Amino acid sequence: MKSFIQRILYAGIHRALSRSLMRTIVLTNALALITIALASTTFLHSLIRNHGRLSVSSSINLGVMVLLCGILVLNDARRFNLSRFILSVLVPVACCAILFLPRWKNPDLFHYLPRSPQLFCVILATSIIPLMVFSVRERRLLIPAVGINILILITIDPTLFYFSADRHGEYGFYRYFGNNLTILAAGLFLMGAIVFLKNLFEDFELLNERLIDNLNDKNAQLEKNNRDLYRLNQDIETQNEEIQAQSEELMQSQESLMMANHKIEEQKVELENQNELLEHLLAEKKQDLVQTNQQLVSRNSELEQFSYTVSHNLRGPVASLLGLINIINLTENEDDKKHILKLIEQSALSLETVIKDLNKIIDIRHDKFNINERVELEEVLSVITESLKTFIVENNIAITHDFKHGEAFVSIRAYLSSILYNLISNAIQYRSPERKPTIHITSVLKDRMLILEVADNGLGIDLTRYQQDLYKLYKRFHDHIPGKGLGLYLVKQQVEKLNGSIEVESVPHQGTTFRILLPV
């Protein structure tokens, strides 16, 4: 509830606005929200009093609540001037409507006195809203809003007299001031006091902004002085390096005199180096054996998972086929046979899909696509977006890229194309319905490694829950969206075939970033 109210209060707020305008927008939203609450109370009271029937006042209250909600919508659409102007005049105009609409056709049914003190108090209280939501410098909007409120405050009493049964009596200058002097004086006093305080506050705020600007200028000057000091320190370090270089030259001249004495020691060091080299070679062989054993263990684990997956995924369609064949042998109804044949066809197609998926995995394991060639990322991405063009257009997908490593490099094109295709198609498939889908692809070369990133703003993955199963075969993380759970498994296998690695960052309901690191 608290976060919902905060979202309403901060509707329309963004960083480009000034601090004073942001405060005014929050105040406008707060006043609109408070007025909605008060109008809702009045509306419910009127419904209860009239036994559920809509009266003129309750209808106007309902319209006021709708317009107040429209103020929040206008602020969210950044139509701040229009929303503040409507808020400034809405309540007084609504009060006038509540007073005069019943009197319009039948003024003889109403007496001039007693008047409704509640509505007069509401009009008097809300006449200061323009001074609260507009700056003194916004005269183009402030003066009309204040003028409308003052005009309503001045003219409401004689208008009430005119639309009443007492209008045939005398209504003179002294009677007007006698009835309205207190209200007018209170209204002028409130407006004058608020104008004075607001002007004083805005002057202090302007002074404060100037002080902040001065502090920023001084900070900039201090940063410039620091940069100058840094340059001086670098010059001193350069001089120190030159002195050190001269010292090293003197030491080298001394070392040349000692070379004869060092030859025996060099031969000894050479023998030690040969021994260390032999030990290093033995350590490398040992490390290779350890890595080979680890690879065998990993392959055995993968083969166990693969065999389990094969048996599990083939068992279902085969069992279904056998069961349907038994049923078709037992039935004699032709319609039932046709229906069972359709089910057999579906099971066969399911079995064919599983076999095709397994063929893809076997192709990767056997290095079927192991031809190295020159690859350009822009060309690969263009082919992928053309093949996915129908899905991109139907779902209004925005795909952007920034290939800082623009030149071609040598790799296996089929694997790289499959990696990008699976990541982009996953980003399209698992898009968020709450916002426009965007996919951003970047590449950069760092330490002879190509870093390829595919980032989206889709549904995201709960890594704390699915981290261990992320790249396993037939694992899926969004059951409400159709899929086979094969894409990330293929991406992982192909990245490893390219001697690379894959990383992932994801936040549920915000998006996912896959980072591929490939040696160049």
SSE layout and pairings?
Layout: H1 2-9, H2 19-49, H3 56-76, H4 80-105, H5 117-126, H6 129-133, H7 139-162, H8 173-257, H9 259-330, H10 334-365, E1 372-375, H11 377-387, H12 389-394, E2 398-403, E3 409-412, H13 413-429, E4 438-446, E5 449-456, H14 463-466, H15 487-497, E6 501-507, E7 511-519
Overview of the structural elements:
The protein is α+β, with helices and mostly antiparallel strands and 520 residues long. The chain has 3 domains: 215 residues, no CATH class; 88 residues, Helix Hairpins, CATH 1.10.287; 148 residues, Heat Shock Protein 90 (2-Layer Sandwich). It is built from 15 helices and 7 strands. Strand 6 and strand 7 form a beta hairpin. Helix 2 runs antiparallel to helix 3 and helix 4 runs antiparallel to helix 5. The longest helix is centred in the middle third of the chain and has 85 residues. The mean pLDDT is 77.
Major β-sheet, in short?
5 strands, mixed
What is the CA-CA span between the terminal residues? 53 Å
Computed over alpha carbons, the radius of gyration is: 40 Å
Number of helices: 15
Order of helices and strands: HHHHHHHHHHEHHEEHEEHHEE
User: Which overall shape is indicated by the principal axes computed on the Cα atoms?
Assistant: flat
- How much helix, percentage-wise, in residues? 55-70%
The amount of beta strand, in percent, is: 5-15%
Query: What is the count of distinct domains?
Result: 3
- Which residues sit in consecutive blocks of at least 5 with pLDDT less than 50? none
Strand order in space, largest sheet: 2-4-5-7-6
Structural class: alpha+beta
Average predicted confidence as pLDDT: 77
The total strand number stands at: 7
